[in-house]
Specification:
874 residues; alpha/beta; 8-stranded mixed sheet; 26 helices; 15 strands; transmembrane helix; Sulfatase_N; Sulfatase N-terminal domain-containing protein
């Protein structure tokens, strides 16, 4: 059995490396010219060839403790490689992407992360079975063939070694002994003891030719490996075992240029500085002068002596004596400037653009000033994987046309009637009609919404942002930005949970307001205490979300753990995905919370994260699914997108039910409800090469709905290339300008609103200011590899690589809104040259500027968050 096992183990290594290399090259081959690919291909295969040769030498069927030990280790290595290769192939089949091994341990070490991995188990098992079958069939052929190749290549090498030793004084007899013993031992075949070494006469005839061929190959490999460009060929040559070693590397000290200067100094010259004015603290980046020191050193008069969480940047620090040494920090922690540390100073922020000096937009100004709008409560609804272009679906849109096209040959009116029922609640929330009409031009009947009786008058309902982007395609980083009004960090995983946000988060702001007033019942809601609560029907244990929820100040939390307790008490709950239950299971807990709010005379801050629209887009069995897309026969590739659309339809109904619940408790007319997508979701319909959010920079992962719902605020379609970072300052602006805060709270809020980097969305959006662009950043899942950027003044979008495994990607969203024709290059120089030729000088300048800003922005986020990579080691 051992004689068969050893060749099979070697064959498994060979097949695993071959399959993964083919996948690896297939992903990246199209990014370089065919000529360059052919020229450098041998050098790209060299690391895999070396691993195969070493594996074959280890898996020799010889007697002796060392040889047996090498065989055992070789077989263990083959099984590890089998699992890794199957995972790589299965992941590629599901997403069109590769596994990032540096993140694999974080998933495997997380109970809920394992559920994500296991969701793709079928494709992994299928890939593993394929490798095993091919390896078993080819085991003897591959074992002998590679052994013969090693012998052929090895003979000239050994003779060269003999010659070298001869020059160092070894006798001919000694050399003859070496040849007969060591070589015979090292170079032999596995099957039936057949020898790999050719006989002496044949060797004599072939030696010169072999020498010449080997010399030419060696020179060629040396030259092509040495002189090829680093990008992308170093990454393309990576062999699977080397890639897997990334799992065990210590966290990189990704803190380069933390103290580096702003890359566009012409924009922050003294003639561009702005003096302080009223609540505005001034703007003097590059000058740590009076305005900056005043902001840093002045403790706000409204801040309680017992400083609440979220406001610790104003904690006084005890003076150190001359003999005291500063506390040691971990060797791999990011060093930060001594002057400001992790302190965010808006006076020194070169990116800061405020629109608080402009008037509220005309449409709503008089309504807000007239006292018709009261905001006693605030609700924030984060919608998992929600896409702006589907909130709501509109007839005539690109995605509507795609859905209709899949039903080719069917009655168009029947299809449109079906599609018109997908997002009726979203139509009411946003004020965007679906424009549903029959072939003859007549309107379809109004779609009834049994879950919700919307009582808002025509022309009222709130502000809908057209052109909104998320700050990250990683849910929790997006959640942090939404709740805290602070950009997240371009690092893998939810490291933000391990430190404090550099801005006060919404629950912390409301907790501050609580501390500014007496905790006693009052009929005047301005004097009432806020009661922050968070609701989610799935687990909060994945990637430390629970830690973050507690840290930012939620007092009442209901997630899967609480729902599991209900199940233990006899309540029937249906799991719809690997994370938990449908949102409808929360309704009883939500009603209990609303009753408590009313009975105790509190102000509600209600935060809710939906989840049904998360992969795998399961819905309750009682929910009747619809074929929004044809998924039969050759159209089966639409099945995942169709599942997603059904999950959206379920969530649309749930949003209506939730709003009706607010109405049933008498909260509708005094509640501001904010709806926002955490990120989008890419499908094969968007681009066939990659799906999902993981290391996928496609724009469909970033366009999200942002809507501020209040029945007494006039309808506004707010056109701006803005992000969800603006939600928190907009909430504060609305509270201030509707008279919804008492004097002390308003005093604090009018100061705080100037701290946040986002602009208010009830005022005209400043796309530029004194030559500076309003830049938007989007961290791409998993965090440390890619960053997307847009600016409010331009139609262009760029994806910037943060490592060597991805390309620059440039698109013009005006002319290519679906990013069907991206321009991709491996270096900035190549990109700017190509952009200049295709889009013009201004676009090329914009791309170079975006890249420069990104190099400053990333390390600056780590400084502000106090990022410490050593947390990953603990």
């Amino acid at each position: 059995m051992f004689a068969t096992l050893v060749p099979f183990c070697f064959s498994t290594i060979f097949v695993s490396l071959t399959f993964t290399k083919l996948v690896h090259l297939s992903i990246h081959a199209k990014t370089i010219s065919p000529g360059a690919f052919v020229l450098f291909l041998p050098s790209l295969l060299l690391p895999d060839v070396l691993v195969i040769i070493l594996s074959r030498l280890a898996l020799r069927q010889q007697k002796g403790l060392f040889s047996v030990g090498a065989c055992v280790l070789g077989c263990i290595f083959s099984f590890i490689l089998l699992g890794a290769s199957a995972s790589q192939l299965g992941f590629f089949y599901s997403t069109g992407n590769e596994v990032k091994w540096s993140e694999a341990l974080s998933y495997a070490g997380d109970k809920d992360g394992m559920k994500i991995l296991l969701s793709g188990l079928n494709s992994v098992l299928a890939a593993g079975a394929l490798i095993v079958v091919v390896a078993w069939v080819a085991k003897w052929f591959l074992y002998r063939a590679v052994g013969s190749l090693i012998a052929t290549v090895g003979m000239p090498v050994v003779h060269a070694w003999q010659w070298f030793r001869h020059r160092n004084g070894r006798s001919p007899q000694s050399l003859a002994y070496d040849s007969d013993s060591e070589l015979d031992e090292d170079l032999e075949v596995a099957k039936e003891g057949a020898r790999l070494i050719p006989d002496t006469h044949e060797e004599s005839r072939t030696r010169p030719r072999t020498w010449i061929i080997l010399a030419l190959i060696s020179v060629f490999l040396f030259l092509t490996t040495t002189f090829r460009p680093a990008a992308p060929y170093t990454m393309m040559s990576m062999t699977l075992p080397a890639a897997m070693l990334e799992m065990f590397k210590s966290p990189a000290k990704l803190c380069n240029n933390v103290e580096g200067g702003w890359p566009l100094p012409d924009l922050i010259t003294p003639d561009n500085w702005e003096e302080s004015n009223g609540r505005f603290p001034g703007w003097t980046p590059g000058n740590n002068g009076d305005a900056a020191r005043k902001y840093r050193d002045t403790v706000p008069e409204w801040l309680p002596s017992d400083i609440p969480a979220g406001f610790s940047k104003w904690l006084s620090k005890p003076n150190k004596t001359a003999d005291e040494e500063p506390a040691a920090s971990p060797s791999n922690a990011c060093e930060v400037p001594k002057a400001d540390g992790t302190f965010y100073n808006p006076v020194l922020d070169p990116l800061k653009i405020s629109n608080l000096d402009t008037d509220i937009i005309d449409v709503i100004r008089d309504t807000l000033k007239g006292g018709d709008v009261k905001i006693k409560h605030v609700a924030l609804i984060m919608m998992e994987s929600y896409r702006e272009e589907l909130f709501p679906l509109q007839q005539g849109s690109n995605y509507h046309k795609l859905m209709v096209k899949s039903h080719k040959g069917e009655d168009i009116d029947e299809i449109n009637e079906k599609l018109s029922r997908m997002s009726p609640v979203a139509e009411r929330l946003t004020g965007k009609s679906g424009n549903w009409k029959r072939k003859d031009g007549s309107d379809f009947e109004h779609v009834a919404i049994p879950q919700w009786n919307d009582t808002a008058q025509e022309g009222y309902g709130g502000i809908n942002v057209v052109g909104g982007f998320t700050t990250s395609s990683l849910s929790f980083k997006s959640m942090a930005a939404i709740h805290c009004g602070a950009w997240s960090m371009p690092v893998d995983g939810f490291e933000e949970s391990e430190t404090d946000a550099y801005q006060a988060c919404i629950p912390q702001v409301f907790n501050l307001f609580n501390k500014l007033k007496d905790d006693k019942k009052s009929k005047d809601f301005l004097e009432q205490q806020w009661y922050p609560a968070f609701f989610q029907s799935i687990t909060d244990g994945y990637d430390r979300q629970d830690k973050f929820d507690d840290k930012i100040g939620f007092e009442h939390i209901v997630t899967r753990g609480r729902l599991e307790d209900d199940r233990k008490n006899g309540e029937e709950l249906e799991e719809i995905n690997y994370f938990g239950f449908p949102e409808t299971t929360l309704k009883g807990h939500i009603e209990d919370y609303l009753k408590e709010v009313k009975e105790k005379g509190k102000r509600m801050f209600f935060s809710h994260f939906t989840s049904t629209t998360h992969h795998p887009w399961g819905v309750p069995k009682s929910f009747e699914k619809t074929d929004f897309l044809n998924t039969e026969g050759k159209m089966g590739w639409h099945s995942e997108f169709n599942d997603y659309l059904n999950a959206m339809r379920f969530t649309d109904a749930w949003l209506g039910e939730l709003l009706q619940t607010f109405d049933d408790h008498g909260l509708t007319n005094e509640t501001l409800v904010v709806f926002v997508g955490d990120h989008g979701q890419a499908f094969k319909e968007d681009q066939k090469s990659k799906t999902g959010t993981y290391e996928n920079g496609h724009v469909s992962n970033f366009r999200v709905p942002i809507t501020f719902r209040h029945p007494h605020i006039p309808r506004v379609q707010y056109n701006a290339n803005a992000t969800s970072l603006s939600i928190l300052p907009t909430i504060l602006d609305l509270l201030i300008n509707t008279g919804s805060l008492n004097e002390k709270d308003q005093n604090a809020a009018e100061d705080l609103i100037h701290d946040y980097e986002g602009q208010s969305l009830i005022r005209p959006y400043k796309a530029t200011h004194n030559g500076r662009r309003a830049w938007n950043f989007g961290i791409i899942n998993g965090g440390a590899s890619m960053l997307s950027m847009t600016s409010a003044d331009a139609p262009w979008r760029i994806v910037i690589p943060l490592d060597d495994s991805t390309q620059y990607r440039f698109t013009d969203l005006n002319n290519d809104p679906l990013e069907k024709k991206p321009l991709e290059k491996w270096t900035l120089e190549q990109l700017t040259y190509a952009v200049r030729n295709k889009f013009g000088e201004e676009a090329s300048k914009w791309a170079a500027e975006a890249d420069a800003v990104s190099k400053w922005w990333g390390p600056e986020r780590k400084r502000l968050w106090g990022y410490n990579p050593s947390h990953k080691e603990n």
